[in-house]
Amino acid sequence: MKFTVSVPSWRRLKGKAEDRVSQVRLEREIRDLQEEIDLQMQMVGEIMYAAHRGSPAESEDIQRILEYVDGLYEEMEAHLEEILPAAGLNGAE
């Protein structure tokens, strides 16, 4: 059996494949960002617990970590905004 694909069909398939690769890349980046957020928030929890146990805690350290986490969330939200329209979701549901 011979299988042929016209040029317009091939271009459409290629475009869909490229879109899917881009979406998978964004999803991976979102997972990586969420993992980093989790690690940073765990660090904040450890600092807070150490303070509870009597170890001095520098509020500047916590503030710096939380500002870093804010930036990670902003980056993650930007990636999500790229994915949602591509998936046919616009957040207006």
Task: Please tag this protein with its features.
93 residues, rod-shaped
Query: What is the alpha-carbon Rg in Å?
Result: 22 Å
Q: Supply the number of structural domains.
A: 1
Strand content: under 5%
Shape: rod-shaped
Percent in helix: over 70%
What structural class do you assign from the helix and strand content? mainly alpha
Number of helices: 2
For the largest beta-sheet, the strand count, sense and barrel status come to:
none
Order of helices and strands: HH
**Number of E strands:** 0
First CA to last CA: what distance? 46 Å
Taking all residues together, what is the mean pLDDT?
Answer: 86
In short:
The chain is mainly alpha-helical. The chain is built from 2 helices and no strands. Helix 1 runs antiparallel to helix 2.
Set out the fold topology.
Layout: H1 7-52, H2 59-86
Kindly describe this structure:
With about 90 residues, this protein is mostly helical. The chain has one domain (about 20-85). It has two helices and no strands. Helix 1 packs antiparallel against helix 2 (about 60-85). The longest helix is centred in the first third of the chain and has 46 residues, at about 5-50.
